[in-house]
Every structure is written in structure tokens, then in C-alpha cells.
Amino acid sequence: MDYVQTTPAEAAEMLKVIGVPDLEALFKAIPPAVRLRGKLNVPPGLSEQAVLDLMSGHARRNTPVSEFDSFLGAGKYFGYIPSVVDALASQSEFFTAYTPYQAEASQGNLQATFEYQTMICELTGLQASNASHYDGGTALAEAIGMSIEHTDRKRVLISAGVHPASIRVARSFFRERDYELVEVPLEGGRTASLEKLIDDRTACIAVQQPNFLGYLEDLDAVSAAARRAGALSVAAVEPISLGMLKPPGQAGFDIAVGDGQPLGVDMMYGGPTFGFMACRMELIRRLPGRIVGETKDHDGKRGFVLTLQAREQHIRREKATSNICTNQALMAHCAAIYLSALGKQGLPKVANLCLQKAHYLGDRLREVAGLKPAFDAPYFREFPVKLTRKPADVISKLLSKKILAGADLGRFRPEWKDLLLVSASELTRKEQIDRFATELNEALR
Amino acid sequence: MNLVFETSRPGRRGVQAPDLDVPERDPRKLLPPSSLREDPAELPEIGELDLVRHYTALAHRNMSVDANFYPLGSCTMKYNPKVHERVARFPGLAVLHPMQPDSTAQGMLAMIRELESLLAEIGGMDACSVQPASGAQGELTGLLMIRAFHRDRGQPGRDEVIIPDSAHGTNPATCTMVGLKAVEVATNKRGCVDLEALRKSVGSKTAGMMITNPNTLGIFEENIDKVAEIVHAAGGLMYMDGANMNALMGIARPGDFGMDVMHYNLHKTFTIPHGGGGPGAGGVAVKKILEPFLPVPRVIEKGGSLAWSEEFPKSVGKITSYYGNVNNLVRGYTYIRTLGRGGLRRVSENAVLNANYLLARLKREFPVAYPRYCMHEFVLSGKNLAKETHVRTLDVAKRLIDYGYHPPTIYFPLIVPEALMIEPTETESRETLDAFADTMIKIKQEAQENPKLVQEAPHTTPVKRLDERTAALQPKVRWTRPA
User: Fold this and answer.
1) Which residues of A are less than 8 Å from B325 in CB distance?
2) What is the CATH number of the domain that holds B448?
């Protein structure tokens, strides 16, 4: 089936108005030599019922995380999504609109984005936010690009505690530029001292909070080192943790980015999610992507518009430093609804639930399975444990017990080959943690 | 209306978090006090009902495809089927962690692999990756692959990309991102690439050419095979911006007219709701010669089941953190399977029919930039009207809002003065097209009789015309509590 409304009789009348004998006449500009002879090798169409069967079949061959006791996080978190989030974000007036080029016809979308930007500024302690980026990795890559432009330097320090996928995305983004991406190693699970690596050629230092292993970095020390070298500091942050942790802006950071999925967006096998991006006001003209600003209409009434568009590709063309246009607006709306629904009191509570459950998990793994966090450092919602057997084997053993045991860190760095990264969220229940500790102990015997 | 922050009242609560079911410990003992936040973030404090009313009121201040004809050129604002929304929310497709074991995501891996092969087939290509999150990311991926290809062949010095002057702004911006120089080539009188100018632009520095086909004037590049021949003869590759694939499905395939790599905007052609500015999804499809450079990971078959593989040493790497906007791929795949080969062709035929019908209804009233039959969209010029009445294209666009229409794309492409770029899509009925044409003609009359009425439009919206200049000069991009 298809969604064309025109009947054959109407099509014939329309062709008459156009003044051509048949449809073929409209395609005359396409040289015969390059026309498709025959039909596409695509299966015949399906009715709505049949396509629902097809898609149910695909869905049945996947097991949703909700059917497991899950301790898998590593950047994507299975958290509680209040019912209002999807109910409001899927209102078709938001859902089936596009970029608010025509401000007067898009005040709902623009105001929602302005509110979103305000919430991101509140969470990060910075003054300017864009309307969203694709995901945490692409936002980090663009933050590095901003730093390079701003400082006119080409050396980038990136902590090995940054999510490995983000580091890889940054490497892809810059593979054709003569930038130097230097990884700062971890010591005891946290970013090693920067003093030997940072110098007056350094454009920025990027760290993650909590870092990929779940541990807290000393943000104040990082931003101070960057400032001394005249470099910018970039923090990749997990947004739920900001209900409790010091905002990067307060810790002296110039730019904060992160993956917004924990803020009311389903994991959806990785996407769509959104990347958030905030910076100090002085850097706003280097911030990529759409930005919504407040203004007034002819009668002096408050209204909202896309602003500072002179930064963007459709005006600057080859002088633009980013090509982003379509972003992840709808996911940003989900986050704003989520943050409003939980509110000023609710977000710190969710953060505390994650913290407490992760530490209960730490206690049980030690008491029942004799496992300690791999490093002795403060952690927020996840931590690695060192296993005596191959993590991949343990993961597949626990899978048969309907447990997602965590992330096999050996996939990312050889020096992490014995580490299993385990995580908790506000959805993790005590009895799930207890069962996990017992089953993990069993699996390690 | 109020901002959500202005509706906020201290102590009011919306959704409440559950109680803790494990022994509570003092956060200040678990974490260094210096790492903790001193004051809570100033998030709204609002009850659930008032939050629902707030967002419902915002929704009412928005035009959308579900409520309005939305002929925004180059954006393909077609109907977004409701069945897609139902499918996309199946827990077996939405509640999946990107790092859960491959054995627990076989349905998703199979769907992604099948979608990639369907997109390759529709484009006449050999392979595809759906990892890019958007069309712009497809461009980035495509140009990275072109560079990697030349490097692999020992020709790293090829650093120029030829781009027609009618191109989307993303094309030159993407060149800059990958260290390539954009070389502009002119459009001829028929609205197509000027072959003579092209011949003069290519050479040993040419990495390739980016072309949009049909181009942003809504015209099929009638010499596309010759264009490709010239670029290939100079040693360059052809990149196609697939933003306008809605005109070509089942009719002509980029791979058959000499394109080596192309991106899809799945949200346009394969009808993913545009979400108020995203998320979209952008596949990148390639000929065999570029396949080794596709992003990783890719789905492979291993011991009778499907798995993600990183083992493609020439790959340009990762473009997004995981596998792209997967839930939107679900929508795009559902659409392709619903339509099937016959339906896809019917889409393009009717997109072209609708555009030409609307063009026929309007061409006597507004000059057409390049007067000939169009493909899925066309570009009118408001320059005569502006000269005659001082009513500009911007004013016409704003007046359309009063009549309940989302305006077309305006002032693009840049080579057409006072441009109005109109893309009706295949899903609109004849009555809608007629009503829109009647309204455009009426606005023209209004401009002649009462220009002020049009110049001061819109009159019916929650706000009147907004001061964009002040917004840019003194950017206020967040709310702050009044002192």
C-alpha cells in the first residue's frame, strides 16, 4: 500500500491542466540511457496488517532490556521514563513539524527549545546552549573543533577516561585535519596528571565526568591546568549525575557536552538520542548548530527565533566550521519534559537513587562474590570489577539466567581485558542486585 | 504565554521518584564533597496537569504536517504514517541497549542489514551504511571516504571538490570539515551544470564533485552522464546529495547515472517525522570501489548468525557513537516494506505529478526561475512582485501563515532572486494543491491592492513579525529569574 490520495481520474485531469499527454512526458529530462529498465529488486508492498506482522517478527528476535535484570550501562542507561514524556513529545504538532525557519508559525517549538536551552545551562552551570547535537560523541568532537578554532592551536588532550566511542568519533571527524589528538592515560582509574602533557600548543583538554569507568575526576584541577596553559577545558558529563555533582561551569570549564539519553529517552539500540552542548557566553559565536533566542514582535510582545544564524552552513557555506543543520530536536523536547516532570527536587532524588544502588551493588559484589571495584576511587553509578575469568564468558553465562552482567571492557582497550563494568539505575531493584551477586559468584567458581 | 519556569511554584511536584529500597548512605561519605553541587539546578517545579497544559499550549502554537500543508522545498514534508509510530514503540525495537549481546538483537541486525541492501538497490549502489545520523553526516562520511580512496591510491593531493552554485550550504561546509576546497561551478540557462565551466574546473587536484540530482531548482541534470564522465576522466569521484530522491525512486538510480557515493535523507524520502528539526537519519550508499571505506561497525554473518564487525581496516571509522538513529531506521524500513517496489515508484510519479500540477497553476502568476517541467519541486521568483509592489517573498511567506499554510523554503537556492521553493510531495490531494494555488494568487492580488496588509503579515499568529536583528545583536538564549 501507499499514501498517495490522487485517484487515476484525478491524475488524468491534472495531466490535462499541466498540458502533457501522460506522466512519461514529465520525466523526459531524464536521458533514456540512465533510466531504470525493469523494476527495483524490492519486495512487493504490504498491507498495514502484514507490515505489523513483519515488524513484530523482527521485534520478537530481539530481547528488550526490560526482560533482563540489567547491569549494563557504559554510557546508555535503562532509566525510568515518566508517561508524560512520550505523551507530550509525540503530540503531532511537534512531531510532524520541521526546523522553525518561520518563527511566527513555530512559537511552540521555539519556546520549548528556549526552555530546553535554559535547563541545559542550569545543569551544566554555563551560559549558552545550542538546540542539540546528534549524540554525546559528535557533540564532543564539535566541542574539540570549537576549541581549535578559538585558540588557533592544533593539539588536543583527551583523557583515556572519555567514552571510547566518543574518542573514535572525534578521530573520524578530524582524520583529514592536521590536528594532534593525544590521549592522557588513566592512573588508578582516573586521568593522570596533565602537567607533563599540557603546553602552550594545547587547544583543549577533554575529560569525562564521571569517566567511562564510572569514577569521578578532579574537575577543578583539570580546568586550572587548562587555564594556566591558555587552553580551553571540555567536560563530557552524564546528565543525571548533574542532579548531584558539581556543574562543569562551576568547576571552571569552558564547554560541557554529553549524551542526553538518560533524560527520558529510550535507549533505542543507540539512537536517536541527543547530544547537549553548552559553553561560556564568550564562546557562543563558535557554538555549532541551531540556537534559539528571545526577542520581541512588532507590538513588543515576547517571542522566540532561531538566532546567530550567521554561524551556520546555509549562510557561511565553506566558511562554516560545522555542517550540522537537522539535529535531534524532538529528543531535546523529551529531555525538557523529563526535567520539568521530575523538577528541581526530583532530579537530585533520581541521582541519589543511582548513587545508592550502585554502592549497594558494590557492597553485595564484595560480600557475596568477593569482588572489589578495580580501582579505589569514588564512583557515581557504575564501576569496573576485575574478574578471574574472561568477562565475555561470564556475560554469556549470566545471559542464560536472564541477567545482562555489564560491559566487557576488553572490547575497548587491551589493558582492560579482565574488567567488567557494572552499572545501576533508579530502576535497579534490591532483589535484582542480590540475585546478580549470587549468580556472578556462581559463574566465577 | 508563560515559560515553564514562570509557571513554576516552590515545592510543587510532578512525577515522583520511588523510595530507596537499599540502605541509604551519606553521599558526602561516598563522594568527595568538593565534587558535589552546592545548589540544586533551577529546574521547574510544576504539577503534572499544568505541565501537560503547558506543552499542549505550545503544541497549539506550531504548524505541522498533520495540521497544515507544508510545502517546504527540499525538505519533503510528506505524511508520516501512524503505523510507523506504533512499530517504533515495540519494546523489542525500542528498549534495546546498543551493547547488549548480538545474540539478543538478531532481529535488529537483520533489519539493519536488509535496510542497507534495500537502500543500495534503490540507489543502484553496491553497499550502504545507515550509521550517519543525518544527511549532513552522510556528506561528511562520503567525503571522508573519497579522501581515503585517493589516499589509498597514492593521490593524497586531490583536495578540490566541485560544487554547483545551486548546492545546499552543507556541501561546501562539509568540504571544509574534511580539509577539501570547494570549487564552485556555474548553472547554465537551462538550470543545469554548465559543461564548459565544468571542463575548465576539473584537473589533477579534483577529488570529486558533489551534485544534487534533481538539483535544488527541481530539475534533473539532463547531462548527468556527461558530467560524471568529465569528472571520472579527471580522476575524481561523483558524490550525490540524495536530498531529492523522492523524485527518482524506481525511475532512475544514481548508481546507473555515474554516481559513486550518495547519501539519503531518510527523514525526507522515507518519511520519518521531522520532529521539529530532527532527529533524521542519513544512509550513505557506495559503489564497490568505496565499500572498504564505509564506517564501522558493519553487520556480517558469522557462524549462521549476524554480528557487528569492526574488521574493516580501511574504514573511515565511527561517525556516530553506535549505529545511527536506529529507531528512525525502523520507521524508514517499515515504509519501504509497506510501499514495496510498486509503491516506491508511485511515490515518485505522484511527487512529480503534484509538483507539475502546482507549477502549472502558478506559472502565469509568478515567474518560474527555469521555465520547464520540474521534478518533485520547483522554484518561483518573487522579483517582479517585489519590483511592482514592494511586497517581498518574505512578506508573501508570512501572509501564507495567515491562511493556514506553512510557507515554502524562501531565498534558496541563492541563484534565484526572491526565491520561493515549493515541494508539495505525493501525499497531498488535488484539492489541497488547488486551495494553495488560489491562496498564492489571492496574496498576489492583495499585494497589488493593499501591500501593507501583506507586508505586515502575519496577523493571526500568537506573535507578529519578530525582530531577528536584535535577537542576534544581543543574544538572550536562556531564561533568567528577574532580579
Assistant:
1) 134, 271-272
2) 3.90.1150.10
Taking the Cβ of residue A36 and every Cβ of chain B, the question of whether any pair is shorter than 8 Å is answered with yes
DSSP per position, A30-92: S-GGGBPPS--S-PBP--HHHHHHHHHHHHHTB--GGGSEE---TT-------HHHHHHHT-H
ipTM: 0.98
Which pLDDT belongs to residue A370? 96
Query: How many angstroms separate the CA atoms of B363 and A404, rounded?
Result: 62
Q: Confidence class of residue A7 from pLDDT cuts 50, 70 and 90?
A: very high
Q: How confident is the model at residue B151 (pLDDT cuts 50, 70, 90)?
A: very high
Contact B61 A353 (CB under 8 A): no
Look at chain A and report how many structural domains it folds into: 2
| Whole-Å CA distances, A211 to A380, A381, B61, B94, B119 | 10, 11, 41, 26, 38
Are A321 and A367 within one domain? no
Q: Do B472 and A269 touch (CB under 8 A)?
A: no
A 287-306: CB under 8 A from B: 290-299, 301-305
Confidence of residue B179 (pLDDT cuts 50, 70, 90): very high
A-facing residues of B in 242-261 (CB < 8 A) are 249-253, 256-258
Find the closest chain A residue to B477 by CA distance.
A293
Q: Are B250 and B266 in contact (CB under 8 A)?
A: no
Q: Choose among A236, A275, A232: nearest CA to A139.
A: A275
Residues of B in contact with A322 (CB under 8 A): 173, 177
Are A328 and B99 within 8 A, CB to CB?
Answer: no
Helix (H, G, I), strand (E, B) or coil at B127: strand
Question: B92 CB near a chain A CB, below 8 Å?
Answer: yes
- Residue B70, in any domain of the structure: no
A208 CA: distance to closest CA in chain B (Å): 13
A390 contact B CB<8A: no
Burial B181-192 (b: 16+ CB within 10 A, else e): ebbebebeebbb
Instruction: Classify residue B48: in a domain, yes or no.
Output: yes
* pLDDT confidence bin for A320, thresholds 50/70/90: confident
Residues B93 and B48 in one domain: no
Which chain A residues are closer than 8 Å to B402 by Cβ?
Answer: none
d(CA A224, CA A233): 9
Residue of B12, B15, B144 for testing the chain A interface, max A β-carbons within 10 Å: B15
Q: What is the pTM of this model?
A: 0.98
pLDDT exceeds cutoff 90 at B272: yes
Instruction: Indicate yes or no: CB of B429 within 8 angstroms of CB of A87.
Output: no
Considering the domain architecture, whether residues A306 and A225 belong to the same structural domain is answered as: yes
Residues B321 and B424 in one domain: no
Range of the domain at B30: 4-61
pLDDT for A297 equals 96
pLDDT tens, A28-62? 999 999 999 999 999 999 999 999 999 999 999 99
What is the per-residue pLDDT across A336-359, written as a single tens digit (0 to 9) for each? Answer: 999 999 999 999 999 999 999 999
For residue range A65-108, list pLDDT tens digits in order.
999 999 999 999 999 999 999 999 999 999 999 999 999 999 99
Same domain, A221 and A279: yes
Do residues A218 and A272 share a domain? Answer: yes
Contact B477 A62 (CB under 8 A): no
Closest CA to A369 of A342, A406, A343, A400: A406
Q: A38 contacts in B (CB within 8 Å)?
A: none
B184 in A contact zone (CB under 8 Å): no
Residues B98 and B118 in one domain: yes
